[in-house]
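Data card: per-record layout.
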Amino acid sequence: MNYVLIIHEVADYASWKKQFDRAANLRKAAGEISFQVLQFQHEPNKVVHFSHWEDIEKAKSFFDSPEVKQIRLDAGVKTPEFNYLKQVDFGIL
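The structure for this 93-residue chain is written out next.
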């Protein structure tokens, strides 16, 4: 399975979340299957977006597209760190 882990600071979480929610259909059309949004415990404007994708190359193309770069700017994203991951193990304890 293919995953993307993005860690970034945002100017304002509530504003970012509105933009994130508006882009849901774009993400789905590009191949995002599911996602989780997490905040750092003592830094509410530091956000983690962890998502499951059909294809890593599609995910890279999506996040590198001019349209998505503009959405990030409009949402107040500061220097995102992208990590493209392939699952190698899974367990429930």
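Known properties of this structure: Residues 2-86 form a domain with the Alpha-Beta Plaits fold (CATH 3.30.70.100). The CA atoms of residues 26 and 32 lie 9 Å apart.

See the next section for split statistics.
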